[in-house]
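Now for my pick.
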Amino acid sequence: MTAETFIALVLFAFTTSITPGPNNMMLFASGVNFGFRRTVPHMLGIGAGFLSLLIGVGFGLGALLHSVPALYTGLKFAGGLYLVWIAWKIGTSRSLHEGTATSQPMSFLAAAAFQWVNPKAWVMAVTAMATYTDETQYFLTVMLVGVAFAAVNLPSVSTWAGFGSALRDWLSVPVRLKWFNISMAVLLVISLLPMLK
């Protein structure tokens, strides 16, 4: 992989990681509702889960999904249904949760597992592997794609959780929080539409 290709890969990884999508909408809402510190396991789970998905796609899952389109369609719709459920949970939340046990942010394992049914994550992984790997150095280039995403993922997703956390005080007014959570739930559902085509 040339330096120019690697730079292009890092830019692709950054733009796809920092732009709005299901993960970033959930992190923004989690930052508001639970604060930055309690959202850290969610952020780390996204990074670990996406890296495992990316490597899995690079080493054969992408080919499997290409040869069995029904499996890919099933994954997209399973992910879509799960996101609608999460949107419902966000949209009906009416209070900030600092240390309460009744409502919890997404755990590391749940966030990691979610990447495997996240339509945007699959699109990103398949596109990255199809575009930035080289058949003559396949193992090395698959790993370089993983390194590029690992390097930009945490800073990108942290930004969304940080923005949410910064708005906690302003959103401590119940009516503002109510409309914020409803808006985030709607945006989360809207973020699915392009990916479910």
User: Anything to note?
Assistant: Residues 30 and 91 are 12 Å apart (CA to CA). Confidence is low (pLDDT under 50) at residues 98-102.
